[in-house]
């Protein structure tokens, strides 16, 4: 998959500045500090590695290398000393104040990142390492199909905030509940379809997958060459990509699909 990488990268230590509940299933954590001057912010769906202290650690330990060698460094640390590492979208970046917002889905204490976001306080330490953007519309695109579950909501909101006025897009966003809807300001040619889950036991992403498949089958999506950005629980982007490519003749190169998480599996130990 094509990814626009940052020009320079550094391991950044930052601290929590503010924590603000955003909606029923989201919390915004703002992190800041002078080392954020070394974070190459690209906007759109850019993600960052987030390093968090492991249970029982009083201080954050993290790799130091500013090149790909950090991965080896990370795995050479004994598991008990290694920080937790997860991927999150850079939702906002304030270059003046050197602050970054990250919007965490609150999915309880089942994962270290979600649990951390639920209990963190100003002053807590966090590590960051800039990753790239995978939203890269192909030249010649006539309209865009953006589909995600709640984990991709921050990425899609950031993409829409930067949308050019002439953008034509159909956007399908599945959220845990009605109260997680947002009100983005979008160009006239953009239709945002909110899909709140009615069944709390349903697999996140399944409603969005079924809804878009139905719209494709009914022929009620725009005509012309699309660029598709699909992200969320793995079954959503992989399943929808298959339908688009195999059944609707969409060019593989015009589909960006990213599994943001996997139901029943931790991102890593
Ligand atoms: C490029 C990229 C950008 C991302 N941006 C964001 C973002 O901005 N905000 C965000 O919240 N997430 C985002 N994610 C997803 C996030 O990295 C995963 O959800 C991650 O697994 C959360 O870590 P955890 O420690 O909370 O749970 P883990 O330890 O990874 O998993 C523990 C358990 O929780 C379940 N789980 C994990 N995530 C979810 C979820 N979202 N809903 C319900 N159950 C879940 C797993 O299936 C597992 O059973 C992004 C992922 C990628 C790859």
The percentage helix is: 10-25%
Number of helices: 5
Structural class: alpha/beta
Which CATH top level class of the largest domain fits?
A: Mainly Beta
CATH fold-level topology of the largest domain = Elongation Factor Tu (Ef-tu), domain 3
Could you describe the largest sheet, including whether it forms a barrel? 7 strands, antiparallel
Order of helices and strands: EEEHEEEHEEHEEHEHE
Strand content: 25-35%
- Secondary structure tally: strands: 12
Q: CATH superfamily assignment of the largest domain?
A: Translation factors
CATH architecture of the largest domain: Beta Barrel
List the uncertain runs. none
Sheet with most strands: strand arrangement: 4-3-7-1-2-6-5
Number of domains: 2
Which ligands accompany this protein?
flavin-adenine dinucleotide
Structure keywords:
single chain; 269 residues; alpha/beta; Elongation Factor Tu (Ef-tu), domain 3; Rossmann fold; five-stranded parallel β-sheet; 12 strands; binds flavin-adenine dinucleotide
